[in-house]
Write a structure and sequence with these properties.
By secondary structure, this protein is an alpha+beta fold. It has 18 helices and 26 strands. Belongs to the JARID1 histone demethylase family.
């Protein structure tokens, strides 16, 4: 295995001298996981075998035909954001343009069933959107002296030139009604308007800054650090600076007329915020009424499944909770995965694992082969290095691709024999997966089970697929994640994805795993370094840490590992997953807020402040922490090992973390199921309360826009079915 050499300038190199690859400047890289957008990678042509070229041409033809079909039958709104080209009366009548002539009868029956399911779930949220807009229209009519004659109100259309519109206070996407300043263009969403009038603005426009000092190359490996005599700068926040300005803004808005905020809050402090719209309000009301009528005419009843599919052969034990039915997850083979079983568990917010997905893929998913397909012999200098994350320092590092993939297969070591854990996240960084690996993308999507949910273009139960081709779409993948791994839990520097919540539902498939066996010399070195880490922890940890529990914790660790002990020794085992139930989020957050000083983050510094523990992505619960969590708060995650060829389905709203037991290549994709619209909306509300520069702040999903489009598609399908009926 390669080793890392350390030079006096704090730069770390793999291999012998400068013949290796540079790991980066550990001491000065405080830009944690910053994503830099550079020029597009220019791919050169490469030779392919005839069969691959034929299949690739077929995929491209299918894509072109799909685009042409969408151009002929786009679902459009009336408005200015790509939401609008036809009047509403032309689309929601009995003469709907939904074209079902090319669909066989069996598929038409499925489409109707899916449309009934979709409409049943989106209708309550569509009605709520209309209600909130009506309330704002009443307020605007009152401000203009129209009283109850709000129907006479003429709302000006906003000019946005096909671009997404975001609230300047909370960064939430705006799909229709909002308020805007003519003087400076400041825009405010309806939720912020309501909170302002109530004097309780929760949407956060403040910023927060973190200070994680570099303490030398030896500090992450257990060396005791003596702080300088000057006071170390702590985490600082600009939130207090905003409080007086926000209080004044709230006070000025209690009479329902909202002024533009002062310059300190991003406005001009001069104009008034006037009500604007992006789509036709009458169209939206007509859509709601038609959806309500069709929901009554075509009632949806979820029959579920009466069998015990999560307790038999197609199940996997993943926890030791009091209620036995809650300890197993549905885990069918891909050839036996049934949609009705999936829907039953999915509607309860449970993860699902599907086995044996790659039996007939016919493609290599080894990272070296993926890289060869992307690079193709290109001499572009941008292809000469990739940007990875070092899991010990939590900083970005620039690496030569060949050196990174060599470490994937054979491992890398620090001079003290501690394993180096590197990972590529969202790779390729600057391109869409389907653009540079179209054949792999097609195979991946085609292999996914439950296509009604997972197909990004034609899935009738995927709200994201309802967005027309001319509307800006969120990037939901597929994306690849390539990372080193180590079977033993190291305690720091593990190859992990820390606790977080995805923006939507997700499916994650383990495509490849490569085991790197440590030598006996390395195992002894790791034991020695762990003792140094423990001594360092005892010096630095706060008094919150329980005392005198070492022996008990070792025993508890063995008890906890038994759940997945039979799986993680298998040749195909790759990653250990921990997925928490939605109802366990409050106690999980309470635990992390209580014990956060015991966790380490950038440059192995202790975490000194928490914003939102399930969104910060700064915590990984070790076995010790998971046991203490269950002992003190009575909760535990579903814990299981993912094998090569297994797809893990994670419901929106379920916090989860992952540790790689081996070097792993995973491909993940997000989707939006009708059953989980509520959690997606809750996540959007969480994001708007985060500081402006928080990693999870941006509303990438635009769930409200998806709700409207999904309702429109369901209405058109049912109108078409009504004509045939």
């Amino acid at each position: 295995m390669g080793t890392i050499g350390v030079e006096s300038n704090s730069r770390i190199w793999f291999g012998a001298g400068r013949a290796g690859f540079q790991l980066g400047n550990f001491g000065r890289d405080h830009e944690f996981l910053a994503r830099e957008r550079s020029k597009p990678i220019r791919l050169s042509k490469r030779r392919r075998c005839d069969d691959d070229q034929i299949e690739l041409d077929h995929v491209r033809k299918q894509r072109k035909a799909s685009i042409e079909r969408k151009e002929k039958s786009k679902h459009r709104f009336h408005g200015d954001v790509g939401l609008a080209k036809k009047m509403p009366s032309e689309r929601l009548s009995e003469d709907s343009e939904f074209d079902s002539s090319s669909i066989c009868e069996e598929d038409k029956v499925k489409q109707v069933e899916y449309a009934r399911c979709m409409l049943h779930h989106v209708l309550p949220y569509l009605q709520d959107l209309c209600k909130k807009q009506l309330n704002e229209k009443h307020i605007e009519a009152h401000n203009r002296g129209l009283g109850v004659f709000y129907n006479q109100l003429d709302i000006e259309k906003a000019e946005c030139n096909g671009e997404r519109v975001y609230c300047d206070n909370c960064s939430t996407s705006i799909f229709d009604f909002h308020r805007s300043c003519k003087n400076c263009g400041y825009e405010l969403c309806l939720t912020c308007c309501q909170e302002l009038r109530a004097g309780n603005l929760q949407g956060n426009c403040a910023e927060i800054s973190y200070h994680y000092p570099y303490r030398g190359n030896g500090y992450p490996h257990g060396e005791i650090w003596s702080p300088p005599t000057e006071i170390v700068q702590k985490t600082t926040s600009r939130i207090p600076d905003y409080q007086a300005q926000i209080a004044s803004w709230c006070e000025d808005s209690k009479n329902h007329v909202i002024s533009c905020p002062p310059t300190e809050l991003g406005g001009c402090g001069v104009g008034l915020l006037e009500l604007k719209s992006l789509i036709s309000y009458q169209w939206l009301i007509q859509l709601r009424n038609k959806a309500k009528e069709l929901d009554e005419d075509w009632p949806y009843v979820d029959e579920g499944c009466s069998c015990h599919c999560a307790m038999g052969e197609e199940s996997r034990k993943a926890s030791e909770r009091k209620h036995p039915h809650d300890n197993y997850i549905y885990c069918p083979s891909s050839d036996k995965a049934e949609l009705r079983h999936f829907k039953e568990h999915w509607s309860r917010g449970e993860p699902v694992v599907v086995r044996n997905l790659l039996q007939s893929s016919g493609l290599s998913w080894k990272p070296n082969d993926l890289w060869a397909a992307v690079n193709g012999g290109s001499t572009d200098p941008e292809m000469a290095r990739v940007r990875a994350i070092d899991c010990l320092s939590c900083c970005q590092v620039d690496i030569e691709p060949d050196a990174f993939f060599e470490g994937y297969e054979y491992g890398r070591l620090y001079p003290n024999l501690w394993p180096v854990m590197l990972k590529l996240k969202d790779w390729p960084t600057y391109h869409r997966f389907e653009d540079i690996l179209p054949l792999h993308c097609s195979k991946y999507i085609g292999a996914l089970p439950f296509q009604a949910y997972t197909n990004p273009k034609y899935g009738m139960l995927n709200l994201a697929s309802c967005l027309p081709s001319d509307v800006p779409k969120p990037d939901l993948g597929p994306k690849s994640y390539i990372a080193y791994g180590f079977r033993e839990e190291l305690g720091r520097g593990d190859s992990v994805t820390k606790i977080h919540l995805d923006v939507a539902d997700a499916v994650n498939v383990l495509m490849d795993a490569s085991d790197v066996e440590p030598s006996s010399e390395q195992e002894n070195a790791i034991k020695h370094l762990k003792r140094k880490h423990k001594e360092q922890d005892q010096v630095e940890f706060s008094q919150n840490r329980a005392q005198g529990t070492d022996e008990c914790q070792i025993t508890k660790k063995c008890q906890m590992v038994r759940i997945h002990e039979a799986y993680d020794r298998a040749k195909t085992a790759g990653a250990l997953w921990d997925i928490f139930r939605r109802e366990d989020v409050p106690p999980l957050k309470e635990y992390l807020e209580k014990y956060f000083p015991e966790f380490r983050h950038i440059h192995c510094n202790l975490v000194d402040q928490v914003v939102n523990p399930v969104h910060d992505e700064t915590f990984y619960l070790t076995v010790e922490h998971k046991k203490r969590l269950k002992s003190e708060f009575g909760i535990e995650p579903w814990s299981f090992v993912q094998h090569v060829g297994e797809a893990v389905f994670i419901p929106a709203g379920c916090p989860h973390q992952v540790r790689n037991l081996k070097s792993c290549t995973k491909i993940a994709m997000d989707f939006v199921s009708p059953e989980n619209i509520g959690p997606c909306i809750s996540l959007t509300e969480d994001f708007r309360r985060l500081p402006k520069n928080h990693r999870a702040k941006e509303d990438k999903l635009e769930i409200k826009k998806m709700i409207v489009y999904a309702a429109q598609r369901a209405v058109e399908v049912l109108l078409d079915a009504g004509k045939r009926k």
